[in-house]
Design brief:
The protein has 109 residues and is of the alpha+beta class. The protein is built from 4 helices and 3 strands. It has a 3-stranded antiparallel sheet. It is globular.
């Protein structure tokens, strides 16, 4: 479990990206649009956070990428989650659930 705020936020962003990519291959803009849509416009991810996270995740083997064409026929890098990324997502989601339940309990008392 991350102990520093930056680590927590970074791990959360990576988890959200991996979850988004479970829906299928996406380019960076598609990931940000999906996160905005599913969160009711709350989770706005800036390029300065998204792309470094994608590069870290690719280096760790959690995602892979290839060039393709976007919906508007522009060249774009499409990301997909790997088997290693799916395993990491499962573990991260479990940790997040435990953490968020603990915070909810602590705030209720």
């Amino acid at each position: 479990m991350p102990t520093e705020r930056g680590d927590l936020l970074r791990g959360t962003l990576e988890m959200l990206i991996l979850r988004s990519l479970q829906e299928g291959p996406m380019h960076g803009y598609g990931i940000t649009e999906r996160l905005l849509a599913v969160s009711g416009d709350v989770l706005a991810v800036e390029e300065g956070s998204l792309y470094p996270a994608l590069y870290r995740m690719q280096k760790r083997g959690w995602v892979k990428s290839k060039w393709g064409r976007s919906e508007n026929n522009r060249k774009a890098r499409f990301y997909t989650v790997t088997a290693k990324g799916r395993r990491h997502l499962e573990s991260a989601a479990q940790s997040w659930t435990e953490f968020s339940e603990a915070v909810t309990k602590a705030m209720a008392t």
